[in-house]
Design brief:
Helices cover 61% and strands 11% of the residues. It is of the alpha+beta class. It has three domains: 164 residues; 110 residues, Phosphorylase Kinase, domain 1; 218 residues, Transferase(Phosphotransferase), domain 1. The strands form four sheets. Strands 1, 2, 3, 4, 5 and 6 form a six-stranded antiparallel sheet that branches. The protein is elongated, with a radius of gyration of 53 Å.
Length: 519
């Protein structure tokens, strides 16, 4: 097949196909070029967009740097001002330095003068050193004299041991004179027969013939170290009493002292309710040179110890208001005794009796002493170490374990510690552990008081009970201070807590304080 055209050459079919193929390849190249072109345009557009973003960022950075430049310009201006001020201050300091140099020169002059004084002191020191040499020689001489004195002391100790032996022989001879001693005792006891004390607010007198009192079998006899106590009934009046009987002849002075104390307390007006009635004393000769002395009191059915034992066995607790009542009655009674200058010295639950209404009474003044001075905070007196070990104060405890028969201590403050232990025992039904190390003992006391406080805080019903508990815990803490200098006595407790705790008989007690001061 051939293609004809006007004025054209005749082309063969082969050439035609060849031309067409070239054209198709050319078209393909053109298409590829167009595709590359379009791709290049897209790439350029992206780069243009990126460049635009970079330009925008550069503009923002330029603006930021411009702002920073302006801030820096302001800071530079401020620094210029500060520099100017520092320059002015430097000028002022230069003037001060000049002034200080002048002062320094004056100080140097003073130091030179002090050096001269020091030289004079060194001269005096050398002179004193020479004197000390002489004194050392005197000390050596005194030490020799001391050796001589120690030899004399040893000789005196030997004489003392000899005197002890002699004293022992004298005691043995005194024991041989027992009949003369009994005769003396009978004459001394006659003074006790005249004692008849009136009961408070009563006009009748009590018959003191011991044969008119019948021992009651429903109550056991309570034995003590110096005597016994039993329940008796008057044959004529059928009234019930307690009789304290002494049969130990050797303790006559102690018996006489106890009788005198009870007599004195009964004669005073306004006696607190916690001091029991004492009706007098009498003596009976039982034959065979055996004399018994009998003291007559009101009868009380049980002691505070019995009450505590009952609560312990029942695993119960004493009511808070009952502990508050006992603390009031005891502070009132013991403060009364202190105003009379009488210390108890054996406070313990067994020596505190209860009536049918559970009112508390202080008994057993057998260990009591009449202190003939008002006992201020730091006053101490040498007294025998006596009482019940469980309720000893730290100062008595220390003396006991050092096996001392006497010790210097304030007996009223020692009684206060025993009183604090009793109050604590009423609450937790036990006494804190003791320890020879006072700090450890203090920790035991602290733990026990916290136990007391925590237990009753869980039982208080209203604000009034909470207030009474707080005051009671304060009293216990103050009473159980191991250092007696920081511990109050009963007068301190009374005046500290009489308004807060509403302690009874205020006016009466103040009257007794005045009487005590005059006596």
């Amino acid at each position: 097949m051939s293609i004809l055209g006007f004025g054209a050459k005749k082309v063969s079919e082969e050439e035609y196909k060849k031309v067409v193929k070239q054209l198709e390849e050319t078209l393909k190249e053109i298409y590829e070029m167009e595709k590359c072109y379009n791709e290049s345009i897209r790439t350029l557009k992206k780069e243009i967009d990126k460049n635009n973003n970079v330009i925008d960022n550069l503009k923002t950075e330029i603006l930021s740097q411009k702002n920073q430049y302006e801030d820096a310009q302001k800071i530079l201006t401020q620094k210029d001002k500060d520099f100017h001020e520092l320059e002015m201050e430097n000028i002022s300091n230069i003037h001060k330095i000049k002034t200080l140099k002048i002062e320094k020169s004056a100080i140097v002059d003073k130091i030179q003068a002090m050096n001269q004084d020091l030289a004079e002191l060194e001269t005096k020191y050398s002179a004193l050193h020479e004197k000390n040499k002489d004194k050392r020689k005197m000390i050596k001489s005194l030490n020799k004299d001391k050796g001589c004195l120690e030899e004399k002391i040893e000789a005196l100790k030997k004489k003392k041991s000899t005197l002890k032996k002699t004293l022992k022989e004298v005691k043995e001879k005194l024991n041989e004179c027992e009949e003369e001693k009994i005769f003396f005792i009978k004459n001394s006891v006659t003074s006790l027969n005249k004692t008849v004390i009136s009961q408070s607010n009563q006009t009748e007198t009590t018959d003191l013939n011991i044969d008119l009192y019948e021992k009651q079998k429903d109550s056991p006899t309570r034995e003590g170290s110096f005597g016994s106590v039993c329940k008796v009934k008057h044959i004529k009046t059928n009234k019930i009493y307690a009789v304290k009987t002494f049969t130990h002849i050797s303790s006559l002075n102690k018996i006489q002292m106890e009788v005198n104390l009870w007599e004195r307390l009964q004669k005073l007006p306004g006696k607190p309710s916690s001091i029991p009635n004492f009706y007098g004393s009498c003596e009976k000769d039982s034959g065979l040179n055996v004399i018994s002395i009998h003291l007559l009191f009101d009868y009380f059915p049980c002691s505070l110890k019995n009450l505590l034992d009952d609560y312990k066995s029942k695993k119960s607790h004493v009511a808070l208001n009952q502990i508050v009542l006992y603390s009031k009655q005891l502070i009132n009674g013991l403060c009364f005794l202190q105003t009379m200058k009488i210390c108890h010295r054996d406070l313990k639950p067994a020596n505190l009796l209860l009536d049918e209404s559970l009112n508390i009474f202080i008994i057993d003044l057998g260990e009591s002493k009449e202190i003939i001075y008002d006992c201020p905070e730091d006053t101490k007196k040498e007294l025998t170490v006596t009482g019940s070990l469980k309720y000893f104060s730290p100062e008595l405890d220390e003396a006991f374990y050092k096996q001392k028969d006497t010790a210097h201590f304030n007996p009223f403050k020692s009684d206060v510690f025993s009183f604090g232990l009793i109050l604590l025992e009423l609450g937790i039904l036990e006494v804190p552990k003791k320890d020879n190390d006072v700090e450890i003992w203090e920790n035991f006391i602290k733990e026990a008081v916290e136990k007391f406080d925590k237990f009753y805080k869980g039982l208080v019903k209203d604000a009034k009970e909470a207030e009474q508990l707080e005051i009671l815990v304060q009293i216990i803490r103050k009473c159980l201070r191991t250092n007696p200098k920081n511990r109050p006595d009963f007068l301190d407790l009374y005046y500290k807590f009489q308004q807060k705790f509403r302690i009874i008989d205020h006016g009466v007690l103040r009257t007794q304080i005045i009487i005590g001061e005059k006596s």
